[in-house]
Every structure is written in structure tokens, then in C-alpha cells.
Amino acid sequence: MILVVGATGMVGREICRRLAERGEPARALVRTSSDPDRVAALRDAGVEIVVGDLRDRASLDAACSGASTVIETAAAMPFAFTTGVNDIRTTDIAGVESLLGAASAAGVGSFIYMSFSGHLDLDFPLANAKRHVEAKVRESGMVPTILRPSFFTEVWLGPAVGFDAAGASATIFGAGTAPISWISTADVAELAVRSVHEPAARDATIEMGGPQALSPLEVVRVFEEVGGRPFTVTHVPDDVLRAQQEAATDDMGRSFAGLMRCYAKGDAIPMDETARTFGMELTTVRSFAEASLG
What we know:
This protein is of the alpha/beta class. Helices cover 44% and strands 16% of the residues. It contains 12 helices and 10 strands. A 7-stranded parallel beta sheet has the order 3-2-1-4-5-6-9, with helices on both faces. α8 packs across α12 (285-292). The longest helix has 18 residues, at 88-105. The chain is globular.
């Protein structure tokens, strides 16, 4: 049995869908507040549903019972974030530590943890939490797999952060000249699923990106070529991002500003060897642009 934590999130539900397609026995940890339509879709796909919360150890003990592998994708940011209730400290750190304890006590053999790129090395709450939990996973006694995806295409090349393909406009953080290995949600989910049985994933930390590192300005040119019209580009300088990070009043604001500053620095990840090892053909930015623009 494979337990997926964060099963109604962007990556978690895609992992569940792919496990179900393969006929893998999968169990989804969902909260009482989870989107009922997403929960129903998981159930309809043949995924076992268990209700619980990273902040409720008893529910985690029940969820881990009989599981051989845990895939942890849950995070408080951005949609469920509530300072002091459901935030980086209570969920991303204390909650995952509690999950590690429950999994170890239940005899779970392997633990797959969704972190983010090791090149995102600035000091901000989410980065510090990820690195702290990575160490805890390695110390857990279970076989650890640390997955470190770069910037998600669906998020960072989407309107939520100012990249409006339909409107032909883009907000660029920093100069926009540093290459980034943009990675699709589908590829992250697929690599996580393959990690369950792939020997190369055992006791490994895997940096994950797309097949080609492109600067944000190169990405804009790809979208211009695919869409057939020029983009309006607005730059947010690093000193502005730094000021936003310093002025932020909660860990989510500080973390978003920190992530934007990391974007400005770039994040190029060689993926040829990883793609060969896992037998994957990775999604290009151009194919994402074609899908986004119809």
C-alpha cells in the first residue's frame, strides 16, 4: 500500500491518478476541509480514502497502518496557509515530523519526500523548512528518497505569478537572463511514482528539472513564437524583491519573495542522465506553451 499525503494538491492528486492507472494499491490522506469533488475523483479512480491531518498524530498512525511506502507532497502554502494554525511551522515542519514518526512506528519501509531544488539556497522560511525536513527524512530509519523539483511550469508560467499567456504579458523577476529548468507537474508526479520501484531512487536525493534550461526572457520568446504576438514584459528588480521579503509580515510572504529572488538567480539542472535512468521523456516549455495557447 502506498500512502499519498497531500493527495488533493496539484502534485498529490496526479500521483494518485497515475498510481491508480498502474493498478498500484494507493491510499490518499485527505482533510475534512478537502475539496469534495477532488476527494470523489480519487475515490472513483479506485484510491482508498482516509481522513486525517498532519497536525493530528492519531490520524497519521491510522493512515500509515499497512503502508509500505509514503509519498509526502503536502504543504501549507499557499491555499491553506493560516498563521499559527496551518503554516510552515505547524504543517511543513512539525506535521511532517509527526508523519515520519507515525510511518516509522507503522513499519513503513520507504519515504518519498517532495522538497524543492537544492539550488534554491537563500534564507527564507520555506527553504529552511525543506532542508530541515530533508535531514529528518534521512535520519528516520526508512529508505529515503528526496525529490527536488525546480520551478513548476503550471505555477511560474501561469497568471498567478504574473505570466499571462492569454493576455500576452509577463512579469519577470530580476533581469530574466538566468536559465531555469522549468518542470511540469506531470513529470514531477511521474518521477515520484517511478521512484517507488526504481532502485536508483533508494537512499537518493534527486534534482529535477525539465529537458532544457531557458531564461525567463527565452521563455517569453517561445510563447511569442507559439502565440504569434509580442508580449508586454515587466521586470521586478532584485532590490525590490529583497525589500518585499524584509517587509513581509508572515512566513508565506517572506517565502514567496525568497522564491522570486531564487527565480532571478536561475536554476539550471542537467536532466539527461536522470531521464535515461527513469525512462522518461520530459515536457518541454514549447509543448507547455502550445497546450496553454491551444
